[in-house]
Amino acid sequence: MGRWKPDARGRLAQAALELFVERGYESTTVADIAARAGVTERTFFRHFADKREVLFGDPVEYNGVFTDAVAAAPADASPLDAAALALRAAGKWFEGRHPYARRRAAVIAAHPALQEREQVKRLHLTEAIAAALVARGTGEAAAALTAELTSVAFHQAFTRWVTADEESDLGDLAVGVLDELRALAC
Amino acid sequence: MGRWKPDARGRLAQAALELFVERGYESTTVADIAARAGVTERTFFRHFADKREVLFGDPVEYNGVFTDAVAAAPADASPLDAAALALRAAGKWFEGRHPYARRRAAVIAAHPALQEREQVKRLHLTEAIAAALVARGTGEAAAALTAELTSVAFHQAFTRWVTADEESDLGDLAVGVLDELRALAC
C-alpha cells in the first residue's frame, strides 16, 4: 500500500489544509495557499475556481473511481453487487490517504460553507452512480435507489474511517455498512 | 384536506417564488420580495438571514414533523417502523402544498446555490431523525443508518411527487419507496 504522491492539485490541497488549520479558513487567501504550495496564483486558478474548491478534487476522477467499477461489474451482477464493487474500488483509491482525509474531515466539519460543498459532492457522486447503473441496464428507479444506498454506505463508512485512529480498510467498512443496511431493512 | 394558509414566512416564500420565476433568482432583491409580500424589509430579515433562505422554512418546525412522529411511535416499534410513521406524518404535513412544492422544486433545480441549500436541509433532517431515534433507545449506528434510509425514501418520493401532475399522497409514495429499498436490499 504505497503512500499517495500528490500532484499540483494535491499539493495545493495539502497546503490549503495546513493553512486552514494554522490560521483558519476565513483568514487564509488563495495567494497564501499558492505560495505555500510553491506555485503561482494563476496555477491555483487553473485547477480551482475559488478557495472553497481547493479541498475538493477533480469530480470526474473521483466519481470515475465508483462508476468505472460499476461499468466493469460482471453482466450478471445485481445492481447492489455492482455497487459493492464500487465501494471496494473506492476503498482501494483511498489507501494511503487516511492522514490527509482525517485532517480534511476535521476542517470541513468546522466550516458550514465547506460542509455544504461536501454535500453537493455527495449528491453528484450519487447521481453519477445512478447513471452508471442505468448504462448497464438497471431501470431508472432501481438505479436511483441503489445509488442512494451505495452513497449512504460509503459516507457512513467514511465518517467512521476518518474518526478512527487506526487505518482500517475503507472498502471493508463500506461493504460492512451495506450489510448493516440489509440487516435493518430485511 | 384544507388548503395551506400561509403566515408571514409563507407569504414571503410565495412572493419570492413568483419573483424568481418572473425575473430570475439573481435579479430579484429582498426589497422586491418584501414589497410583493406586503411587508417591510425589516420583517423579511426577522424571518430570514438572506435571500437564499426565503425558500427554506423554519427547520425546527419542519424537522419536528418527522421527529415528533418518531418520538410518538409505540415503544415496541422497530426503528424502521418508527421511520415509516415519520414519513406518514410528513405526507400529511405536505397536504395542500403540492402546487407550491412543485414550483419551488423547479426554481431550486435551476439554481446551484439553492440546490446546495436544499442538500444542507436534507442533511440536517437526517441528523434530526437520527437524534430522535437515539432518544427512544436505538443505538447510534443503527439510528444513523435508519435515518439515512428514511431520508432516501422521503427525498426520492418527494422528487416523484413534485414531478407528478396529479396530487398523489406523499406519505404513500414515501412508504412505497421504503418498500422498494427493502426489496432491493433483501
Automatic annotation (TrEMBL), chains A, B:
It comes from the Bacteria. The keyword Lipid metabolism does not apply. Residues 6-66 form the HTH tetR-type domain. Residues 29-48 bind DNA. PROSITE patterns: HTH_TETR_1, HTH_TETR_2. Keywords: DNA-binding, Transcription, Transcription regulation. InterPro entries: DNA-bd_HTH_TetR-type_CS, Homeodomain-like_sf, HTH-type_TetR-like_transc_reg, HTH_TetR, MftR_C. Gene3D superfamilies: Tetracycline Repressor, domain 2. This is TetR/AcrR family transcriptional regulator.
